[in-house]
Specification:
This protein has a domain of 30 residues. Helix content is 12%, strand content 2%. The protein has 3 helices and 2 strands, in the order αααββ. The longest helix has 17 residues. It starts with a helix and ends in a 123-residue tail after the last strand.
Length: 269
């Protein structure tokens, strides 16, 4: 019996749609969680497991120790990395959008050029400090970062040229969506040329951080500690400096937009 025209049309249309979505939708991850866990268990940090350019989307990899694995250019969109240890892993140009990073560790990892947009960093709106993600001495240069990273440990991290601001292609709306680094530890971090427009940096530890040439337009630096930081050529246009500590800050006389910054009279020098 011939298929009715309408049913036939729907079947063909569905096939076209699935084909258009491509491998991202139609194909499952390259490895099952069980197989990945087995390979990682057998791996040795001295000879890291090669997981580069792999599809690892939506996998539950919580609690796994990646033992310095090579994950460069891999797609981890939507993966659950709760309490996972990704210390010293290679995540260059990896896609980490919408991942779950509650309590995850990325210390010494290479995330240069990676995309880390809108991760789930906490189990509740309370954002407990014990769930904070760690990026100690990680390389995040040139990375695209957007979301909630409150209380994150980013001591001595390299964020040179990183983008932490809303940008048009994401669809985020200025003044409503912004990267949150409330109470984050960015002491001695390198943020030269980084774009921190609208970023929430209230109560952040930026002691000794290098912010030369950084864009901090409309950023919230309320009560942030910038003791000994380098602000040479940084742009603080319309930034909120309420109670910010600027003791020993270098390059303050070269800062752009300081006259338009808010609550300048309350800063501690």
């Amino acid at each position: 019996m011939r298929m009715p025209f309408f049913a036939s049309f729907l079947a063909v249309g569905l096939a076209v749609i699935l084909a258009g979505l491509g491998p991202t939708y139609a194909n499952a991850a390259d490895l099952s969680v069980r197989e990945l866990a087995r390979q990682l268990y057998q791996a040795d940090a001295s000879t890291p497991l090669d997981l580069s350019s792999r599809n690892l989307r939506d996998l539950d990899m919580s609690g796994l120790d990646f033992k310095h694995a090579d994950l460069s250019r891999s797609d981890l969109f939507g993966a659950d990395l709760t309490n996972a240890d990704l210390s010293s892993t290679d995540l260059r140009a990896a896609r980490l959008d919408r991942i779950v990073i509650i309590g995850a560790r990325f210390d010494h990892a290479n995330l240069s050029g990676a995309s880390l947009l809108r991760p789930s960093a906490f189990s509740s709106l309370a954002a407990p400090s014990k769930e904070g993600v760690s990026f100690v001495e990680a390389d995040l240069s040139g990375a695209k970062i957007f979301g909630r990273f409150n209380r994150a440990d980013m001591r001595r991290a390299n964020l040179t040229g990183a983008t932490l601001a809303p940008f048009g292609r994401t669809g985020f709306i200025e003044h409503i969506w912004r990267t949150e680094l409330l109470g984050a530890n960015l002491s001695q971090a390198t943020l030269t040329g980084a774009n921190l427009t609208h970023a929430l940096l209230a109560f952040a530890n930026l002691r000794g951080a290098d912010l030369a040439g950084a864009v901090l337009k409309k950023a919230d630096l309320s009560r942030a500690d910038l003791t000994g930081a380098n602000l040479t050529g940084a742009d603080l246009s319309e930034a909120d400096l309420d109670g910010a500590i600027l003791t020993g800050v270098r390059g303050l006389n070269t800062v752009l937009g300081l006259t338009s910054a808010r609550n300048v009279e309350t800063v501690v020098r």
